[in-house]
Fold these 4 entries.
Entry 1:
Amino acid sequence: MDLDLVIRNARIVSPLGVNTGEIGVKDGKITALDGPGSALAASSIVDAGGKYVIPGIVDPHVHLGLRNPFGTDVRTETRAAAAGGVTSIGIHLNVKGQTLKEGFEREAFGTFKSNFEENAIVDGFFHVPILDEVTFEEMPVYPKIGITSYKLTWGEVGAAGDVGLYRVMERLSSLGDRVRGIIHAENREIAAFLADRLANEGRKDFPAWNDSRPWFCEAEFMEKSILFAEVTKAPIYFEHVTIGRAMEILTRAKMRGVNVKAETCPQYLTLTSAEKGVLPSFPPYGHVNPPLRDKQSNEMLWDGIAKGIIDCIGSDHAPYTTQQKGDDLWAAPPGIGNIMEMTLPLLLSEGVNKGRISIEKLVEICCYAPAKIFGVYPQKGGIVVGADADLVIVDENEKRKVSAKKLHSLCDWTVFEGWELTGWPVATFLRGQLTAKDGEIVSQPGAGKWLAR
Ligand SMILES: [Zn+2]
């Protein structure tokens, strides 16, 4: 049988090791793995030149359709994904501005799905927010239509508070072992109180945002959520963990057998509230929740990854232009834009090349673990026979200077402007098709598929 594609001379990375060999692809799937000099034949041969070949990144934490129409964001931001070696994205659906009924009826869901498939050049799956009684009642419906993860917004903000959080967890634990509840851990009441106080003092500098949401807001919400998860047996997932203290909190929870997974983001591994450059020059860029912390937290998060306390990486990509960010620190929409395309270069440059993590660990936290946690493994997240041929050739020695102009997001800024990073993706394949090469996009909208789970 002739294959469609063979990648030769590859250093193939799995969470367990690196093997030199060849990858055979037929009909979009990995159908053969063999050693060097194999007899695998194909209509298309790619020589990886001895570079690493890793599974496509699975970024489980992406916001689209916040300020722009959903389909518009899908079109631009999946280009950013492909260029950055990201081949599957977990999208938080934004239903604000619609009535809940509209937002959650199957027609509306179908619109999200068809909008995605018409515009995407990478694959994606959806997370739904649980906002109120209506969406709470609908929770059992979602696994039947291929959505198995929920953002527990109801318990994080608004009147429901602790009761909302507890009730959602109770219901989650009754929905079987495929579901997971995603939690943004921050005590919003204290954060809002401190923001008011600092704004009244006239503060509008970049560190003022960080000062308004101190570490204990995050620690308090994590401890409470873990306790609720322990008594309800709900499977939970902390998105964007930022604080060093979380390592102790998560270790205790995991030792007690609580079903908890944790994510951090590249920005919390590399940036602090004492940052120079782009962030203090335009404080609204730094309006992100949770806020950036300090060097000690950065290092404790790296250490938590190495020790398996932090399970995976998400980007929390939220694309806003500078104009959409506005010039008011306090009123700016939250999020570090333009991060998805930077995830792999940042983890290669600041992680692997600085000896903080191995390349195997990078594949574990960026590919295998998010795929496993969100129910798309083994279709995604590993170079194994039968998996989708989502593959990224990585040059760990390539040096590039970061510039928003060269990135593909609609976001016209990056907080990493001018950073010199070593280690970049040089080719991205989605289901065996070349999608991006040396930062250039070569596939067309509509190449991406929505993943039912
Ligand atoms: Zn987020």
Entry 2:
Amino acid sequence: MKIKEIRVHLLQKKLTSSMIISRGGFDVRHHLIVEVVTDEGITGLGEGVGSARIIQQILQGFMIEQALGLDPMSIEAVRSKLIDSQVYMEQKGSVICAASAIEMACWDIKGKALNVPVFQLLGGHYLDKIEAYASDVYWEEDPEKMGENASRIKSLGYGAIKAHLGCKSPREDISRIQALRDAIGPDIDLMIDLNGGYNRLQAFQAAKLWEPFNLYWLEEPVNPNQIDCLADLRSRTSVPIAAGENEFRVHGFKQLFDKNAVDVAMPDIGRVGGIQETRNICALAEAYGILVSPHNYSSGVLLGATIQLMASIPNAHLLEIDTSDNAVYQELLVEPLQIKDGIVRVPEFPGLGVELNEEVLKKYSVH
Ligand SMILES: [Mg+2]
């Protein structure tokens, strides 16, 4: 089998309300999706997560040319060509995101060719149901509004909810954590994501001041490049630390693990180098006793891939689910996701279980 064409789709969705995090607010979301077409008529879907327009340029500028003619069933060979050989000078960043998209599509093709879900190619079921957490409480000026959103999510049955803070100082944001705890009560796990927005002193103050709220994890408290600072913080607080959505490849995660910087690793399949790379990261994390909660905050293609991977690995912990309607998400799935009380049933469709139909393309494509 050979790759004969790769189509690139830039999707855009305008949000009904701004999503505000420590680094600013945004009103629109983009998704970069590839359709990898083979000479045997099988097409696979993949997604590159990051700066969608830059990933698009990298794909169209040179990477598609490198991928044409490769056998999508020989995934290590594809990885070797697209990641290790051709991008020798580019070890991180959007080039790896672009390669991740093509690699992900190869798994989709392989699953469809063999008529099995991707998790079967990865070793089979470890889990047939995955516990999820809801990930869409954004920072608001009015703490009560954050509490109301958290209550809405709690009523959907989720046992864990993540909120974004850090637009104000740790002391000022206490009122928001208080509103969240008041809304969801003591028995729902609460995670706080700072999106790298605090400096060292703010991060240490946050960990100390917020400790009484029994946080399940504190995510990216400082700039993701400040690994020593993260490790230092982790050694001095009882709050578990999560990070990794801005890290690349297994080598990047090895640095995080060697420095004891995280309790929970968060590789993004559409960013780190694809499904095999994420699997390698999970195996490495297992050796360190670290749990993996993959970053999964993009379209339904990434969601499909993330479910397939998590179904097959022993140290996967909590699937990130966007419970808002802000992303091009469930409409890409072959069948709507079955979620009950925050538990996702692993679908059994061949490949990744996602499709890109004409209706979705018409509605969201940017030309
Ligand atoms: Mg995050």
Entry 3:
Amino acid sequence: MKLDERLSLCASFVREKKMVADIGTDHAYLPVYLVKSGKTDFAVAADVRVGPLENAAGNIAENGLSDRIKTVLSDGLDKISPEEADDIVIAGMGGELIARIIEDAPWLKNSEKHLILQPMTRAEELRSYLSRSGFRIISEKACISCKKCYSVMLCEYDGIIRECSDLYRYIGDLVSDESIEAGRYIYIVTEKLKKKIKGFGRDTSEYESLSSIITQLEQITAERNGNNDISIGNI
Ligand SMILES: C[S@@+](CC[C@H](N)C(=O)[O-])C[C@H]1O[C@@H](n2cnc3c(N)ncnc32)[C@H](O)[C@@H]1O
């Protein structure tokens, strides 16, 4: 079984032989892959909706893994206990929803737990939440899948409240990732902000702050690529 680049990147952050909970599992591709490949012995596949959970159960059964992957109907981690999850994956949802799910599970404030987070939208809200809530981004990487660019963050709780600069909010640790994928991510964020800024009058504070972030991002892109940006073209 082969995962796409996005779920592969999530899987790469999972630690060997740790118990995994996949929150918002839908088809359960990730836990099935992890258990089948031998990286994980036991996993929980959770979803808030019955339909996706039935998809998950079907796929798990087809792969003969019903005794090693438990399906749970759960809003976030509500029905999952700390004993059954070391590495928690929350992928394919908006950044604000991911933040809410983490906030609702105080037991995640434990440095032994790893969070693997892949926001589809509003990644900046998620980075900001993590910084002010004592979660550290250990590593962040970007990938390109089906011509879309995604960021995946590996996080743990260390209790340190961090200041989150505007630049960090938008590109996180990808600033120090020299891959083409990270370059592409930064370029896409810049273009989105350029569109957004058009909605603000030139003399507003929003315009000023967005304009400053855009300048910083453009500078980063120029420096990364020696003004010859290979990440800008079509993928
Ligand atoms: C787009 S799918 C992502 C599937 C998979 N995680 C992936 O990344 O490919 C989002 C899934 O999250 C589920 N979901 C949304 N809100 C949730 C919540 N609060 N708790 C658990 N699952 C949720 C949805 O029902 C849906 O199946």
Entry 4:
Amino acid sequence: MAGRRGPGPVGRAVTAFLVAASLAVVCVGEAPPPRACALARGELTVDDLPAGSSVLDCAAVGRVVTHEGAGVAVPEPGTTVSVDALTADGAGHDFTLRVAADGTVSYAYEAEPARAAAAVAGARADAPAPCADGAYSTEGRKEYGTYEWFIGDGPLPGRLSHAEGRRAFEDAIATITTSRNDCGFDDRVAAKARFLSGTGNEAGIDRAARCTRRDGLSVWDAGDIGGEAVATTCSWSRPVPNGPEELLEADVRFNTHDFPFTNRPSGACTHAYDIRSVATHEAGHVFGLGHSGPGHENLTMYADSFACSTGARTLGKGDVLGLRSLY
Ligand SMILES: [Zn+2]
């Protein structure tokens, strides 16, 4: 019988519909079939959850998505998450994942290859002086109100006491909010910050420097974030009509597992990172600055960090201009 050997006219129609659904073809004049999206277990890459796919159809909220070593957990719809790493070798690992209100995912990357230490040192010597270099980039977000932050109750870089850590971080954050510089630029930046207290909460940054979760508190702390990043900032923000996104939370973690830090680099310093310089750079990310890029090694927002240098404690021209463009 024909019906037993193969699909009849009705069976063929059903087969055709299933093929159309699996290719996500939208039928004109009819509601599109629901799109199925099954993700494998474990970590995902941007290829598993490509731009344009829906985190709702794919049940992807909370799953970690990586790109060239940088990673973030997929946030709720209507939220953007960014990871900014300050590296020792000049390798950039910046990665932004944005989830629109309807669940559609999109990405932005900033990647720079690692360079040999000698090449970086040479580039630094050739780069313009900080007060003569107007380069900057911004990340499309800002703190519209007051950045209220906490210090985690674990060990801090350089074995600082919590009182010392608060002073060092507060000083660094104030350098950003008052655009402190040695170039003679006056402060036209209206950014605000306030330290709240110590906390048992931790920065939402895991051992591979991935932004894991937003817990509602902006926490500065220290720990193991993998071998490459000296420090990492994770920021969460949400869209604002006709303006930069609004910062919701920004966590900062220093990598005390792999790098030594000091609050006072001296002539005897060989490889420790200056806490205030690193903190000022990370505070720049908190307030929406991106990296200044190759050729701008003397600005605070250059992606590499220089051991034993206090140069990033004060801002260069581009750092100031970047803040003025946002605030
Ligand atoms: Zn950075």
